[in-house]
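Escalated from tier 1: magnesium ion holo job.
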Amino acid sequence: MNGSEPQTDQRQDKPFGFMVQPRASNRLDVTHGTILYLEDVSVSFDGFKALNGLCLYIDVGELRCLIGPNGAGKTTLMDVITGKTRPDSGSVFFGQTIDLLQMDEPAIAQAGVCRKFQKPSVFDGLTVFENLELAMKTDKGAWATLFHRLGSEQLDRIAEVLQTIGLQEYASRPAGALSHGQKQWLEIGMLLMQEPKVMLVDEPVAGMTHHEIDRTAELLLSLQGKHSIIVVEHDMAFVRSIARKVTVLHEGSVLTEGTMDEVQNDPRVIQVYLGD
Ligand SMILES: Nc1ncnc2c1ncn2[C@@H]1O[C@H](COP(=O)(O)OP(=O)(O)OP(=O)(O)O)[C@@H](O)[C@H]1O
Ligand SMILES: [Mg+2]
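Tier 2 regenerated the structure:
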């Protein structure tokens, strides 16, 4: 694994189903520059291998595009990283020491691996500001957050995120009055309030106008470096506009990786995905 074996593998020591919260002794260790290690990951549904010996490494701060035909396993991969689906075999590490397969979904999110689903799940009745406030990373519960007076640091953080997602003018509007694209940006803003280290974004531009797609590309590009981001998308013009390294998934494994030009000219990629 990139010459860097995880130093601890606690799975053998734990009874089945035991969930471990990341502790101070198990802090995120990215000294080798890699933030996610997936090795030999397989997932079957009724004997069908949705992921098949998949290996994927994501660097700190990189923006990775993940493409591939319908059913290639892209969403399943995100399900595995976020703890929604348990693989049959393989390993998934966050940094060199945090074994995500030992953690449940809330613990993985709390550790800084956050996901944006395709359908926006903003609270339509709350304002844009209140949605961001509610999403803020806090030790308190949601109710305590709502009735707690915000400190200047928290107000600054919300203002910063509003600016990043380009919704400053809309702060006091109900989220329900936003366009589809604006709702998607608000949801990305809600993820940002949780200060994620890894962001997984599945088909962010589906249903967006051309203008909204361009704005989304700018937004994601502005986040690289500060966060490690995996973007799944079928819209190839959009992928080209943000692409750095592109990974092509096919039948549950990595078919190839490279620049957009490299993968678009790869005969295997043309055959299984881009040919029609
Ligand atoms: N919960 C499930 N039960 C049974 N089969 C599943 C389940 N989830 C996914 N699959 C199957 O696993 C395969 C991979 O699905 P997945 O959703 O990961 O593909 P994808 O690459 O995200 O496709 P798309 O581009 O259409 O979103 C598909 O054949 C799908 O039908
Ligand atoms: Mg999918």
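Confidence is low (pLDDT under 50) at residues 1-18, 20-25.
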